[in-house]
Amino acid sequence: MTPREVPLGGLRALPVRRTLPQRHRSLIGAWCFLDHYGPDPVAETGGMWVAPHPHTGLQTVSWLFAGEIEHRDSAGHHAMVRPGEVNLMTAGRGISHSEVSTAVTTTLHGAQLWVALPDASRDTDPGFEHYAPDAVVGDGWRGRVFLGTLLGDTSPVVTHTPLLGAELVLEPGVILPLEVDPSFEHGVLVDLGSVTVDGVTAASADLAYVPPGDGTLALVAGEEGARVLVLGGPPFGESIVMWWNFVGRSHDEIVAFRQAWQAQITRDGAVVPDSSDVADGRFGIVAGDHLRPIPAPELPNARLKERR
């Protein structure tokens, strides 16, 4: 699957490459969204300035290859996103957060991913976890497992469905057969170089999809080597409705989420200029942030469709 370029966040939009969802595939396991960005020269572009915005029914997974991002959320968490360290934020019934690249960042390069929460967990309390996995090293390759189990290593980060998330760096021509759960479907996002996945070659920014059924995922690095993210999980098995920053189960739920956010951020018909002026409500207040919150776009003039 090849990406499309979209702007991320407000007036100072960072261009990102989006490979999930696509017309013919909405999810890989519970993974429902994949943005890939950079290398971005911050001195030229201004970097990432994503002001407070809301989420429901999902977990965000932030993974960097270069740079540093400051995270603040309405559940009281303040943390840095750094290369090789995963930040997982659980939106549950509702959270708002901001993401801003720091002053020390010269190049910004990474991936932002979402995981759909199953119906039994989607109204859970908001939460946040940070984890810095140790490197796992082999002959011509190294990896970091940030979710699930791979290469004999297991992440302690809590997810609400079985998931796999790992970064792998392969030297040129390396052949790496991965032992994986045969009940999982898998995606391989190529960050740098190229890699052949079960006989099909994917270039930089491509996302390869492998259906369930095989306990071995075979990767072969191209002549320049490769850096990839390996994602996986059992087929989600539930329909979702995803629009803007919300994951729900129906059009009417999404309408209600949008109305709740707009009610928190508007006064006398206008969006408040400072996030400290946001009213408390379903999505809370991002403490310590003074950017103008991002208003929700207008809903399309049609009912939102389910994704399966």
Automatic annotation (TrEMBL):
CDD domains: cupin_pirin_C, cupin_pirin_N. The keyword Iron applies. Keywords: Iron, Metal-binding. Binds 1 Fe cation per subunit. It comes from the Bacteria. Residues 167-263 form the Pirin C-terminal domain. GO terms for molecular function: metal ion binding. SUPFAM superfamilies: RmlC-like cupins (SSF51182). InterPro entries: Pirin (IPR012093), Pirin_C_dom (IPR008778), Pirin_N_dom (IPR003829), RmlC-like_jellyroll (IPR014710), RmlC_Cupin_sf (IPR011051). Fe cation binds at residues 53, 55, 97, 99. Its cofactor is Fe cation. Residues 16-115 form the Pirin N-terminal domain. Belongs to the pirin family. This is Pirin family protein. It comes from Nocardioides humilatus.
